[in-house]
Specification:
Chain A is of the alpha/beta class. Chain A has helices at residues 17-27, 37-54, 68-79, 91-102, 147-156, 204-215, 226-233, 244-260, 262-282, 309-318, 345-357, and strands at 4-6, 61-65, 84-88, 108-111, 131-135, 137-138, 143-144, 161-165, 182-186, 198-202, 287-288, 300-304, 321-325, 334-338. In chain A, α3 packs across α4 (91-102) and α9 (262-282) packs parallel to α11 (345-357).
Chain lengths: 359, 359
């Protein structure tokens, strides 16, 4: 049986990947020089499609790095002399915080229990904070901040830079990027690509900040510091030989998503998540891990399956589906279901049927 | 016409890549979790094959990063508090030096003209040098250091760490890795993979050094510092989601190279290079850029084609071959010919015939 991967990433490849790879091998796209006009056009096309899909303003640049984790490191290196502020309620927001510590910064965190949110209006962010780090979608627990929560926080702190980790939610959240100084995602989540590419959306305030740090002789990194990434991005290139295969595949998936239209995709994700959550809420064998419905992730659904975890996973497996296990200490107590745009209607309906038939 | 890419990387894909990709798509390998047993086994297999092919001792670890450029940054971050020493005679050795400067180190360089070597016995390496950085094969100029030059330098400086950039020569040089504290390469050169993976071979002295720096509270990076890469490597994993596709493809190419045997491959590369150099030496339209025969690269041949550059490139193109242009200021004055293991005998003979027929 060929299983369908509904795992939070790496995940089932988007259906356009296979024909795109065949085409690229035939055209020898992966032999192109990363300093050629052909590559520039490919890279330009991918960036143009991304900006169109997410409605990213011209003021913002797009940088290619190797992973979401690298993006965390690079934004901290390029935009923070000392003080970053982190909202931490899961493993990935905790990683963002610990990378800041590794880099010798003095990060401050506001912590909340796993699966719980923050009372964003009452939180005091220290005056000397340079960068506020928020995780839109905590892949480890299925906790999703609301877009308006993030945007309001920026409106009330206009003098601070804001970076949003949207590793496992992009292109779902409908951000006004004029309020987002930096955002980043990985391609092996919602975009259904093989892993190996991180994408950063970087606004002018981050670039300016990074130039200021450099003029103060602060170390901001080397080949992937923002100033260097920006200079190369003007030529649609990268400082090093990048993952051309992934940049090409991302362009192909974006083209497909643009055909559907972002509103259709967002509605589909929202509707599918609602259906899955309502099935879970009706069962006795499991419950939704995030208690507050407004913070339940629409792209990575985390289900508290307790002692039924193995039985449910095996049942879904026998029905043709592989779901994600729980993260870290919840490995044997949760399942995580990816709700990404690449899943066909047919596969989704079969999964719903399988989930409903478990008892 | 389907051209054969004899470019110094990205280059023609190794013939096993296409069937391997088809197999992987069918088996859904790129949907595997990077924390799964399946991935551990894949990663283990790739590392085992690499160690076997290059005869790397058990004392050395293999780390996966994103590019050769990243490898330069990571070894400098993890192994140097202040002083690195660089042999610079081309763009890539110069990049290694400039990355050290970007990172706030105090690098010292021994410079030589492009295409020229170093009198390694007479060079005084400062006493406080922590890391000696050598570029085995300067991709920009086709200059290759001899293996014994590098090994002798280490023997005469046993107290200093030695890192060797073998980006565009691995697996060709037959190093005694007991003398190499760190080496790294990119997969889009001799291994004929799509770009997007850097591989680091890291010995125990580099790891120890990196632990010492950390105990002195020196910043050594974050998720890709050696101490963290090492901890994850014990589980055959990486801190972040890596380029699983490239790790898988590298394993497949390594398996093919092991079938031929490393001696056969090295002999083939040496013989082919000799044949190409002797053709060039007999012509009037071009000359070998590197004057000293012992330092002519066997994997990236740099030919000074002067005013004949465009005509020759176009002729080779019409014969079905794409060669590399000159690097940087030599863009219109040199061609660079990749001599990588993946080229079939048939294609190589056709290329020889084409080159010989140009006048």
């Amino acid at each position: 049986m060929k299983h369908i991967y509904l795992t939070p990433g790496p995940t089932e490849l988007h259906p356009v990947i296979e024909p795109a790879l065949t085409y690229a091998l035939n055209e020898k796209i992966f032999s192109w020089s990363h300093r050629s006009k052909q590559f520039d056009e490919l890279s330009q096309k991918t960036i143009k499609s991304l900006k169109e899909l997410l409605n990213i303003p011209d003021s913002h640049s797009v940088f290619f790095v190797a992973s979401g984790t690298e993006a965390m490191e690079r934004v901290l290196e390029s935009c923070v002399e000392k003080n970053s502020f982190h909202f931490v309620n899961g493993s990935f927001s905790a990683r963002f915080f610990s990378i800041a510590k590794d880099l010798g910064k003095s990060p401050v965190k506001q912590e909340s229990a796993l699966g719980n949110g923050f009372d964003l209006r009452s939180i005091k962010i220290p005056k000397d904070t340079e960068l506020i780090c928020m995780t839109h979608n905590e892949t480890s627990t299925g906790f999703m901040l609301q877009v308006q929560e993030i945007e309001e926080l920026k409106r009330s702190h206009p003098d601070k830079l804001l970076v949003v980790d949207m590793v496992s939610s992009a292109p779902y959240p409908d951000f006004d990027y004029n309020l987002i100084d930096c955002a980043f995602f990985s391609v092996q989540k919602c975009f259904g690509l093989p892993a190996g590419l991180g994408v950063m959306i970087v606004g002018p305030k981050c670039l300016k900040r990074s130039q200021e740090l450099e003029s103060k002789r602060i170390i901001t990194g080397s080949y992937h510091r923002f100033v260097e990434l920006y200079e190369w991005s003007l030529k649609s290139q990268t400082p090093e030989t990048p993952n051309i295969l992934a940049i090409y595949l991302l362009g192909t998936v974006l083209e497909d998503l643009l055909k559907s239209g972002i509103e259709t995709i967002r509605t589909k994700i929202k509707d599918r998540a609602s259906r899955l959550y309502s099935i879970i809420e009706k069962t006795k064998f499991a419950s939704v891990f995030v208690k507050n419905p407004v913070n339940r992730s629409d792209t990575v659904l985390c289900i508290d399956t307790g002692s039924n975890t193995e039985k449910l996973s095996q049942f879904l497996n026998s029905e043709g589906f592989i779901v994600g296990s729980g993260y870290g200490k919840f490995k044997d107590k949760h399942i995580r279901i990816a709700n990404f745009p690449g899943t066909s209607d047919r596969d989704f309906e079969l999964f719903v049927k399988a989930l409903e038939s478990f008892s």
